[in-house]
Recover the amino acids of this structure.
């Protein structure tokens, strides 16, 4: 059974500083910035990164090179989750969340200032890759801390609901990123956008990071971590304890996350690239369609989170993942039709299912681990899932589309969802797990 956030380890001042509205916003803002930053890069990779940093070669080669740089951050993310997870489990959730947001925001902002290949030659893609790696390191520590901030402060019986707020971050971050790119597409010509317009969303990230830092510096440490300190339960090397005693839950958590990442990045990054480049749908039109579809992702998130508190994490995920498996068969007839209403329907279905599968993870992954390795375990599982489900997803989809068409890409989505179904079926139900 879960416990109230007001424990004996929590002072009245800490309770006031961690009142629900502040906790909700502090946990939500980081993941909103995370997905803003990542989708800014993903959109730029689909529309501008290739010609600016890899100008030699065909359009397909440029797109593949851009998607390779996209995947670099996903390789860095587990490293970041090990690094920040260590300090999150040793020093505390609050200070680690502040540090991860700083690293993430600085790397993202600097990408907006990196000169292109025409200006500094091969140094340009090298700098891009270094900053992309730094972005991944910071992001690796972000989600786990945000999820713990929400769930370790949640009232009894509402961990799924509180854990939903970090999961709403993708919808808001996506809308902010896509809305900005949509505005640029409408107001700038293609040459202007490719020359300098794509840099603006990266630079704007600095404002969002400053807001996130301000909010997070105001919160207190979570009561669960304070209780662990009082009971002297902290371990010297959390990752060693995690791998030695909790490796199986970590693996299952990573497998469960695969479907979320695959649905999101196939239906946004790959579909955007395919829709604009192959179907010749105007960029601003496709971006507008994605903005509409992500509203359905936002709608699915609270519904799925509420259901996970009511019926359990596993039943909700099993139903949602089976629907995701079936959705892979819709890609060729809907997206491949090139007809705007059918393309819109496909995007709505995929992003709705992303919200449905992603929402319970905010509570599920922290519930798999004890307090002394929870930051590390939840973060590593989340980010290992990113390597499996997102890092190479746009690249693989691009190759599959060129070799076998969209039906092959749809099959890839179904297989990825089946991997997650296996992980969830092997898990224990965690709704009533004790987090203190």
């Amino acid at each position: 059974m879960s416990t109230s956030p007001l424990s004996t380890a929590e002072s009245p001042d800490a309770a006031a500083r961690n009142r629900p509205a502040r906790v909700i916003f502090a946990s939500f803002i980081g993941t909103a910035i995370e997905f803003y930053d990542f989708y800014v890069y993903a959109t730029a990779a689909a529309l501008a990164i290739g010609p600016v940093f890899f100008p030699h070669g065909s359009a397909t080669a440029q797109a593949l090179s851009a998607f390779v740089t996209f995947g670099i951050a996903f390789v860095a993310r587990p490293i970041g989750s090990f690094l920040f997870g260590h300090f999150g489990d040793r020093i505390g959730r609050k200070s680690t969340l502040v540090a991860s947001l700083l690293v993430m925001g600085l790397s993202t902002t600097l990408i907006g200032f990196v000169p292109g290949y025409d200006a500094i030659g091969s140094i340009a893609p090298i700098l891009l890759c270094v900053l992309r790696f730094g972005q991944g390191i910071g992001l690796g520590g972000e989600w786990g801390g945000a999820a713990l901030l929400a769930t370790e402060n949640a009232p009894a019986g509402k961990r799924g609901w509180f854990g939903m707020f970090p999961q709403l971050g993708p919808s808001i971050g996506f809308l902010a990123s896509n809305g900005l790119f949509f505005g640029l597409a409408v107001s700038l010509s293609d040459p202007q956008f490719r020359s300098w317009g794509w840099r603006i969303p990266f630079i704007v990230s600095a404002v969002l990071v400053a807001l996130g830092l301000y909010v997070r510096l105001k919160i207190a440490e979570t009561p669960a971590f304070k209780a662990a300190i009082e009971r002297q339960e902290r371990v010297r090397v959390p990752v060693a304890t995690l791998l030695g005693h909790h490796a199986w839950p970590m693996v299952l958590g990573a497998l469960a996350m695969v479907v979320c990442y695959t649905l999101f990045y196939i239906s946004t990054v790959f579909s955007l690239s395919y829709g604009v480049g192959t179907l010749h749908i105007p960029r601003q039109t496709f971006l507008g369609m994605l903005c509409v579809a992500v509203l359905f992702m936002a709608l699915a998130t609270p519904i799925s989170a509420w259901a996970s508190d009511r019926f359990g994490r596993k039943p909700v995920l099993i139903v949602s993942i089976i629907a995701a498996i079936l959705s892979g068969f819709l890609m060729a007839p809907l997206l491949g039709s090139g007809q705007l209403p059918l393309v819109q329907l496909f995007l709505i279905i995929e992003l709705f299912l992303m919200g449905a599968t992603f929402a319970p993870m905010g509570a599920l992954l922290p519930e798999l681990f004890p307090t002394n390795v929870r930051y590390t375990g939840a973060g590593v599982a989340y980010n290992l899932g990113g390597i499996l489900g997102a890092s190479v997803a746009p690249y693989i989809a691009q190759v599959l589309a060129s070799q076998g068409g969209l039906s092959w890409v749809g099959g890839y989505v179904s297989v990825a969802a089946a991997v997650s179904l296996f992980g969830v079926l092997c898990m224990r139900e965690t709704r009533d797990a004790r987090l203190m």
User: Anything to note?
Assistant: Confidence is low (pLDDT under 50) at residues 1-10. The chain has one domain: 12-425. The two ends are 10 Å apart (CA to CA).
